[in-house]
Specification:
alpha+beta, 6-stranded antiparallel sheet, 44% strand, elongated
Length: 172
């Protein structure tokens, strides 16, 4: 599958109505979106200058929309800010292209100093058997930095290779 590197949620803006805004939930390292500065929490309201909308029935099922604007290989996202319950275009327009991308599952591995305690933070996004060396290196780095606590972030991990999950458990 191809991706421009953005995972997002669609929701209604504070103004309500049939308008739709997207909220960036996650940006894949090395993706087109990441290299162009898209960040978690960014809000977009339009694609190629056309505001997103979705009409729904009483059960919330979409009956009419232009959300297919998100389907092409290349499109421009138009960003906005929300303040005082108002969505305002902020002039940021970023053209993104979907490509084949193999995500590196160890998204983040770092040591945080929290009140004098060394806390290791690992964001691990996929149990894949072919990256155990990278995962081992991340835990080696945390060990060399004398981490005593660990936060393992699996929010974006959809599961997969059971042996990799077992190896992760043994590293901990």
């Amino acid at each position: 599958a191809t991706t421009n590197g953005i995972e997002f949620s669609l929701t209604r803006p504070p103004e309500g109505g049939t308008a739709v805004v997207g909220v960036v939930r996650y940006v894949i390292n090395g993706s087109d979106a990441q290299t162009k500065g898209v960040k978690r929490g960014d809000i977009f309201y339009a694609i190629d200058g056309t505001a997103l909308f979705a009409e729904t029935d009483q059960t919330g099922r979409i009956t009419n929309s232009n959300l297919d604007l998100l389907n092409p290989t290349t499109y421009t996202m138009n960003f906005a800010t929300i303040s005082n319950n108002t969505t305002t275009p902020n002039g940021v327009d970023i053209s993104l292209t979907k490509t084949e991308l193999t995500e590196i599952p160890v998204h983040i591995a770092k040591t945080l100093d929290v009140g004098g305690t060394k806390v290791g933070y690992v964001m691990y996004n996929s149990f894949r058997g072919d990256i155990d060396d990278e995962l081992n290196a991340a835990f080696g780095q945390l060990k060399s930095e004398n981490v005593t606590e660990l936060v393992l972030d699996l929010r974006y991990n959809h599961g997969d290779y059971v042996l990799s999950a077992a190896r992760l458990s043994s590293m901990i």
